[in-house]
Amino acid sequence: MTLHFYILNPSVSTMARTLLGRSEAAMAAITALLMLGFFIAYQTSVDSSRELRYAMASGANSTLCSCEHDVETAIRALKQHLSVSAVSTAPIRIKSPVTNSLMYLQPGKERVCKDGQIDHGCYCKKATNVYPPENILLSQDIRWARGCKKRRPDAIIPGTMKSGTTALKAYLEIHPAITFPDKELKFANHHKVEEFDEYNKVMPYSTPDQIAIEKTAGYFNRIPVVERLREALPDIKFIIIMREPIQRAVSNYMHMLAIKVKSSGTLPIVKEHSSAPQYEIKSTFRESVLFPNGSLKTANRLLDTSRYVRYLKQWYRIYPRHQILVLDGEEFTQDPLPSLQRVEEFLGIDRFFDEDKFFFNETKGFICLRDPFEMCMTGNKGRPHEEVSDDLMEKLRDHFRPFNRKLVKVLERELSWTNSY
Ligand SMILES: *[C@@H]1O[C@H](CO)[C@@H](O)[C@H](O)[C@H]1NC(C)=O
Ligand SMILES: *[C@@H]1O[C@H](CO)[C@@H](O)[C@H](O)[C@H]1NC(C)=O
Ligand SMILES: *[C@@H]1O[C@H](CO)[C@@H](O)[C@H](O)[C@H]1NC(C)=O
């Protein structure tokens, strides 16, 4: 077994001294410390002879120890060090077992990101003109010192697509306690339960204090994928956002049309199972959802995805309700703050979002982030929507009304749009 010690700051080192000093059995103490888990990171290694090296120094008076021994020797050295060094406010230096370089360990006080960048745990975040911000990976040493690891997601935003999942991610990834991969991973679409060990490899680094979230908007209406997720990640949490169904269908149409044009006519095929509804994308939204005889093409995936309750019922069968948070997409677009605070509460993380973090940009016509840097959503958010004529609107409302009513029953609460028609 190889133990890697690192001391985060002087107050923690005081605690370490107190805990170690009181304990008769060093092993018991160190076990307790490890269970506390927030200042000593440990790594087990199959190679027990692997060199354990650490060096510590307090201020100018340094104690350097390079041990090639076992846990107990390491603890003795740690105790010795802690008893000789006065309770100081000086940063503590430690030798990295990763690169062997000496470094100062006082995260929080030590500046690791340049001006205009935000220290976000394992990355520095830098605002760009358009979303997303740039993530600059911190050095190996700092990552090691901070316990950065690629972890499986603790939470997933599974959809619904075109309901504001990108905006939700854009805000949440600014939260100091949340990390996101840059892109949608769609991991569960392509992996069997036995392959979920690979999930962490595609995730970004996160500190032990951070929650790793993934957004793949297409999971929501792929029930076989949800079943797989349940088997592989039973404790994970989900944040589902639902926009008003007709607006979502129109937005989904614009999105698919853009893909169709770009790929000269080919549409992505939904392969989950043969009966899964497919997209039918014509040159107008009207033509895509309406037969010439005036009936709705209810089997079109554009409309199917918006019948939220049919899918949500299955989610509730597969996962316990308390692991699923449903957000109102219209409310979120109007005013993101209440939804973001609901997410903070749901995930059990510190409150970060408040009114001061946002402003309404009159020119753009939507709310932007002000703090820690200015960020406005761009791109397809501004895509013009096709005007839906009154007769079609009436048909769509009649179609979705009963599904919206059922959704209220299943959710046991109303959303801003569930009873609006
Ligand atoms: C280290 O500590 C000793 C004993 O407290 C002291 O005599 C010595 O001057 C210190 N060294 C430095 C470089 O501060
Ligand atoms: C309209 O046409 C579609 C496709 O041909 C057909 O499936 C549907 O039953 C028709 N609806 C009515 C009311 O005739
Ligand atoms: C609002 O958006 C416009 C257009 O992108 C931009 O030029 C302007 O600086 C923004 N206003 C504020 C107060 O940031």
TrEMBL record:
InterPro entries: NST/OST, P-loop_NTPase, Sulfotransferase_dom. 3'-phosphoadenylyl sulfate binds at residues 243, 251, 381-385. SUPFAM superfamilies: P-loop containing nucleoside triphosphate hydrolases. The keyword DNA repair does not apply. Keywords: Disulfide bond, Glycoprotein, Membrane, Transferase, Transmembrane, Transmembrane helix. Disulfide bonds join 368-376. It comes from the Eukaryota. The active site is at residue 162. The chain crosses the membrane at residues 25-42. Residues 153-395 form the Sulfotransferase domain. This is Sulfotransferase domain-containing protein. It comes from Strongylocentrotus purpuratus (Purple sea urchin).
